[in-house]
Amino acid sequence: MTILFMLIPIALCLGAIGLVAFLWAVRSGQFDDPDGAANRILIDDDEPL
Amino acid sequence: MSAQTLTLGGAAIPLRPGGASRDASAGVSPFVREANGDRHLELIVRGAKCAGCLAKIEGSVSKLDGVKIARLNLSTGHMNVVWRGPLSGDAVAGAISDLGYSVSAQTTNDAAKDAKKEERRLLAAMGVAGFAAANIMLLSVSVWSGHGEMGEDTRRMLHAASGMIALPAVLWSGRPFFSSAWSVLRKGHANMDVPISLAIILAFTASVIETVRGGPHAYFDACAMLLFFLLIGRFLDMRLRRRAHAAAQDLAALRNRSATRITEDGVANTVRADEISPGDTLLLASGERAAVDMEILEGFSDVDESLVSGESLPRRAGPGAMLYSGSVNLGDALTGRALSAASTSMLADIAQMLEAGEQRRSAYRKFADRAASLYVPFVHTTAFLACIAWLIAGAPVGDALMIAVSTLIITCPCALALAAPVVQMVASGRLFRSGVYLKSGDALERLATADHVVFDKTGTLTLGAPVLKPSIAALSALPDAAKLARASRHPLSRALAAAAGAGDIAQQIKEHPGLGLEGIIDGRACRLGSAGWVGAETRGALGGPSVWFALAGEKPVEFRFEDQLRPNARRVIETLNRRRVDVEILSGDAPASVEAAAKDLGVERWRAGATPQEKSARLETLREEGKKVLMVGDGLNDAGALALAHASLAPGGAMDVSQSASDAVYTGEGLDAILTAIDASQRARGAMLQNFALAAAYNLIAVPIAVTGHATPLVAAIAMSASSMAVTLNALRLNVRREATP
Question: Distance (Å, rounded) from C-alpha B663 to C-alpha B676?
Fold first, then answer.
């Protein structure tokens, strides 16, 4: 039973990391252009290394 | 490359019906903003569809001197360019139009920015509610599966943990509902947000009490899940409205919104239309569209006012005459004085009509709100009666209250709140892709119920540009007449030139405004213009505009023109007639041409020469007769009628005022979009009614369960998610069925 006092906060922390990542993504405008994001991955960077 | 642009020599030129073609990449410079030494420009790029377009456009702009940021948003077509140095805005736009994409400047407006912020806030609220719902569900499942075995302390601890997760979610994610409910309650009304807020607050409070008491039933999971589902609906609604709004603004930005201002020392420079203040002296070049209302100071010219008055023939204008914004100067350059927007009686009247229409619209009650007004008293009375009945039956006060609360939670209109927005989202997404931009979700409801269609003629049923009527005499004289006509911008000359095709032009051509053209072909003098100008005897008007051509010493030949109907106009009217929808034409044009068009289309009811006031009055009469009128129009003179109609549509080439007064804007040459919009709205209405039926059926099952005291948190969770899924899937069916029968 006492293990719950550890497990529940750990589970919540893991979830919270995901939530924070989502909120950051929303704030930084990553959901503003879903089509562009899907297509940008196809662009080749032809510049030599 | 979009359908409405034509690429010539690498530059994209938008084709405007009835207007002048002008290189769209010119006139972008006034829209450049300066901040901290950087120059910012926001552009609308049309035709970019794929990764290749994206790479080409961003690549070519980035290569320009001093460009720091060049980023194109593929979803909206908006491009943001930031640079430092002497590069001009036109050069940036030119680099894109050279690739074959049409480009125009966009003004940043605060309303759009606020809407974007609001959308992000809703998305974040949805994320928080989703996080809370998932985590509380995790704990709730252990409570439910441990039922009978779990100790009271453990259960209380799990409930307390759930409550701690639910608290911030309810406080933060619930704000949109609480504030909306509070604002209508203060006015003494009720909308869907009232029972939603009440259910959330009650569920949370009851669960806190239950946790403190150590009872078995806490509804924290229901609270968070409810919020999550409802926020999905709210977010879809918001995104739909923002997208539609942005699309309408982009259409407006396509048109020329810069003007040439002449300073006191005689220097002409290009400025943005919104920078012009009343009293400024403006130059309206040949072929240019007036960006603001003005009074002519100098010059004589023919002016195409088809967008303003519906009149299909050009009007002579000279010093002292009024030019409304949207008029096109066909002849010589004019100088004029800018007038303030509300300074003319016609515009003031139209503004008044728009306001009246706006009030009428806001008084329209949406299906969802009408459903809510039936639903709210029913649910609240049921919960109250259930509580009394249990008390009379001898249940303890606490249990009786808990049953009332669980009734409110389980009947919370989750499905009802999703029923309309999901359908509207799917339906307008489909319409969006076929080029119909809806302004709001309730426009769909109003479109679906329209039973009487009123069309404007010029520019709506017709293309708004004259086309030569073929006859033997006309066709034989056409090649010579075209040699003169090719040199003029007059719409009738352009129609002649278009009928003749490419060819050479006559020598020593002179244009005499208001009369016609003269020139020399093979050493013989010739004239093209009015009957009086060429010395012909008129046999009286036979309807439709005409122009005369005479070679020296020969008999003058008459060319007749008609304003050609839009492709499929006849078929659209026939379809409407077959569906028993009354069709009527209400035009500001001359009777002869309106009658011809009405006869051609098989429309019995028509009226010509209608002023904006008469148009509005006609719509009022129809409304008093109990008709639900769909108005389709494009001109400034239609704006009042568009705003007053039950539902309204405007073509993409319409005036800004008319576009903003109407429910939807459609693009494309043909009128098919009107049928598409009506069909889609009727299907959407069907799906919406089905969804409301589903929600009602859900309540028929859920209410007895709750009233009899069987609504445990587990039952509530299953019932709520099942009903929400059912309405969402039913709405998505709209997409599937349409694709099966294209």
Answer: 14
> Using the beta-carbon criterion (under 8 Å), do B135 and A32 form an inter-chain contact?
no
- The DSSP call for residue B646 is S
Confidence of residue B380 (pLDDT cuts 50, 70, 90): confident
Report pTM.
Answer: 0.75
Which residues of chain A lie closer than 8 angstroms to B157, CB-CB?
A: 4
User: What does the longest C-alpha to C-alpha distance in chain A come to?
Assistant: 59
B155 to chain A: closest CA residue: A1
Are A19 and B126 within 8 A, CB to CB? no
* CA atoms B319, B324, B328, B333: torsion sign: positive
> Could you give the CA distance from residue B340 to residue B322 in angstroms, rounded to a whole number?
12
- Nearest-angstrom CA–CA distance, B100 and B9: 9
Nearest to B424 by CA among B688, B737, B613: B688
- Which string of b and e fits B27-55 if b means at least 16 CB within 10 Å? bbbbbbeeeeeebbbbbbbbbbeebebbb
Question: Amino acid letter at B698?
Answer: Y
Q: How far is CA B274 from CA A40, B31, B111, B655, in A?
A: 36, 10, 16, 16
Across the interface, of A8, A19, A39, the residue whose CB is closest to B54 is: A39
Distance from the B209 Cα atom to the nearest Cα atom in chain A, whole angstroms: 22
Model pLDDT for residues B488-510, shown as the tens digit of each residue: 877 788 888 888 888 888 888 88
Tokens 């023109």 -> residue: B561
**By mean pLDDT, which of B5-9, B55-59, B510-514 is the weakest?**
B5-9
Query: Could you tell me if B35 and B50 are in contact, meaning their C-beta atoms sit under 8 angstroms apart?
Result: no
DSSP string, B88-108: -HHHHHHHHHTTT-EEEE---
Residue B96 C-beta-side C-alpha neighbours within 13 Å: 37
Residue B647, pLDDT above cutoff 60: yes
Rounded CA gap, B112 and B488, in Å?
42
Q: For B87-100, what is the mean pLDDT?
A: 87
Strands (E), B425-574: 436-438, 452-455, 462-469, 507-512, 516-521, 524-529, 546-551, 557-565
Q: Is the Cβ pair B73, A40 closer than 8 Å?
A: no
Question: B127–A34: do the CB atoms touch at under 8 Å?
Answer: no
Contact status of A35 with chain B (Cβ, < 8 Å): yes
Upper half-sphere CA count for residue B676 (Cβ side, 13 Å)? 24
What does the pLDDT look like over B117-135, one tens digit per residue? 888 889 999 999 999 999 9
Q: Is B72 on the interface with A (CB under 8 A)?
A: yes
All residues at 6 or more sequence positions from B665 whose CB lies less than 8 Å from its CB, including other chains: B247, B248, B251, B436, B437, B439, B649, B650, B651, B652, B654, B659
Q: For the packed helices B397-410 and B713-740, what is the interaxial angle rounded to 10 degrees?
A: 10
Nearest-CB residue to B55 (from A27, A35, A43): A43
Supply φ then ψ for residue B597, to 5 degrees: -65, -40
Q: What is the ipTM of this complex?
A: 0.86
Taking the C-alpha atoms of residue B678 and residue B457, their distance in angstroms, rounded to an integer, is: 20
Of A4, A26, A42, the CB nearest to B51: A42
Catalytic residue among B302, B456, B589, B672: B456
Tell me if residue B304 is catalytic.
no
Q: Say which DSSP state B716 is in.
A: H
* Distance of alpha carbon B389 from alpha carbon B392, whole angstroms: 5
Query: Chain B within 8 Å of A47 (Cβ-Cβ)?
Result: no
Spell out where B447-515 has E strands: 452-455, 462-469, 507-512
Q: Residue type at B324? A: Y
Nearest residue of chain A to residue B131 (CA atoms) = A19
DSSP assignment of B357-421: HHHHHHHPPPHHHHHHHHHHHHHHHHHHHHHHHHHHTT--HHHHHHHHHHHHHHTS-HHHHHHHH
Cα(B53)–Cα(B72) distance, rounded to whole angstroms? Answer: 10
pLDDT of residue B342: 52
